[in-house]
Amino acid sequence: MPASSAATIPALGPFEAALAEMATPLLLLDAGGTVTFANDHAAILFAGAVTVGSSLATLLAAPEVGTDRGAERLGRSALTEALTARRPTRERLALEGGRLVEAALAPLSTGGFALTFDDVTEHLRSAALARLEPLTGLCNRVELHDRLSAAVAAAEEAGAPLAVLMLDLDRFKAVNDTLGHPVGDALLRKVAERLRNAARRDDVIARLGGDEFAILQVGQVGADQPLAAEALANRLVDLVGRTYVLDGQMLNVGVSVGIALFPDDGRLPDDLLKHADLALYRAKADGRGTYRFFEPAMNAAVQARRSLEIDLRRALALKQFTLVFQPQIRLETGEVSGFEALLRWHHPERGLISPATFIPLAEEIGVIVGIGEWALRTACREAARWAQPASIAVNLSPIQFRGGKLVETVTLVLAQTGLDPARLELEITEGALLDDTDGVLTVLNGLRHLGVRISMDDFGTGYSSLSYLQKFPFDKIKIDQSFVRGMAGSAECGAIVRAIARLGASLGMRTTAEGVETADQLDAIRAEGCTEVQGYLTGRPMPASEAFALLGAGAHVSDPPVSDVVPAEALVPAA
């Protein structure tokens, strides 16, 4: 270690002694920039390159010192210019070994200058890392916004176009939930690598969180930016959608892309991000694995959806939901064997809102669990009042299987309403089994243990319906109404109905044909061996009071159509 130049001063007064003990590297300069004092920390910082009597210009020209902009020498340093002008300034210096220091020059009243140095290496590294997403090494949301703001300002000045692409992985949640977060994280890193390969070197790629990504594509003046953005979106859909092999497993995810263009779709960074997100939402709604450009009409659609979402969140508290009950007829005897409880939303301004509209939204925003519990409790309470021990069927959303509380909820509802568990029939669709088959089957076995019956709804429309019948012994199969309606003109539909009816009989399961609307359909269904029928022909959805009266009257399918007594507001297609 070199000796401190402070030691060359014969006698240190109190002021000089204090300077020598400072933890901050310090140089004192005369008016011409010659070093008159250097404390130990300054000598160590510059590895002996600074001594009393040397000049600031000599120090800054040393090979160990440069700017943080690269190999540029400091002959035109802001420090030397400020020295001449006798004004304060700051400049960042790069030293050997990758160290960065902040140099601050301050004029003194005695005519000289004080020059201090602050090592900012770790601070700058931390700041740089703070702008990177740690899992993938991509930019984070803050860095993307800053880079987008700079790109917009540059584009405004130069007239260059740019595009913002928002990306969302398809089917990623299923991978994360079934294989675990370590595999999900490894998959995200692979996706990030493919995004880098698809984009250009100058494009900014960011991970915004979860499985959401964004790309800032900066164009050239006169370039066809929509065409360039579309080409990038096509590459993304292709590359990200290819099979991944992780830990010996083959995984498949896709990507949906939304695109917003500057300046057509917005001149502010936040507007471009928002509009790209709206376009992404449309791409996902249109089937995923594709891309969409922003269109102004998307704003209106989103505003309408948000308004509906707000109303939906309040509907349960405001008691706007009701249940209607559609009869299920046992074909062998013509008797009403039970009812399916169907949810209806009567909005004070919008009127009757279709379940096809509000149920998917309720699932998306997470309120379906509360609504579903209300529907279950209300249906069981009504069924407990019936004179005959008819069954009551209640639909379950796949969302209700998450969280592990469904069995507990059903147990509590049965205890509160006093309904015999054997009269409760819970209907699920194949969608409930897609994400976590083993977990859902565990819940179904728990429900079966309570004595509750389980039906598979819309059978035949999914990819794995038959395999699910092997994994769980359903009590009933409900044949989707599309096959029933197609029987008149399609031999294939008739064959499917026949096959399902025979399959149900061989497995000891009842089969209910849904959507029966004509006498010909009823005759065909009976001929194919189905055990039950449900549809407008044998009974439209009706209020609870009329279902109660119908059971009391002992109605049969040969009786006058029960729909004759249903008020007009209840004449809504079954959900």
Topology:
Layout: H1 14-21, E1 26-29, E2 35-38, H2 40-45, H3 56-60, E3 65-67, H4 78-85, E4 89-95, E5 100-107, E6 113-119, H5 121-130, H6 141-158, E7 162-170, H7 172-179, H8 181-198, E8 204-209, E9 212-218, H9 225-240, E10 244-246, E11 249-251, E12 254-262, H10 269-285, E13 291-293, H11 297-315, E14 321-330, E15 336-347, E16 351-353, H12 355-365, H13 368-383, E17 391-395, H14 406-417, E18 424-428, H15 431-434, H16 437-450, E19 453-459, H17 465-471, E20 476-479, H18 481-486, H19 491-507, E21 510-514, H20 519-528, E22 532-534, H21 544-553
Parallel strand pairs: 12-13, 15-17, 17-18, 18-19, 19-20, 20-21, 21-22
Antiparallel strand pairs: 1-2, 1-6, 3-4, 4-5, 5-6, 7-9, 7-12, 8-9, 10-11, 14-15, 14-22, 15-16
Helix pairs in contact: 7-8, 8-9, 11-12, 13-14, 14-16
User: Low-confidence stretches at least 5 residues in length (pLDDT < 50)?
Assistant: 1-12, 68-75, 558-575
If you compute it from the alpha carbons, what radius of gyration comes out, rounded to the nearest whole angstrom?
A: 37 Å
* Proportion of helical residues: 40-55%
Number of distinct helices: 21
Count of distinct strands: 22
Overall 3D form: elongated
Mean pLDDT: 83
Query: How many strands, what sense, and barrel or not for the largest sheet?
Result: 8 strands, mixed, barrel
If strands are numbered along the chain, what order do they take across the biggest sheet? 14-15-17-18-19-20-21-22
Taking the alpha carbons of the first and last residues, their distance comes to: 84 Å
Find the structural class using helix and strand composition: alpha/beta
> DSSP strand (E) fraction?
15-25%
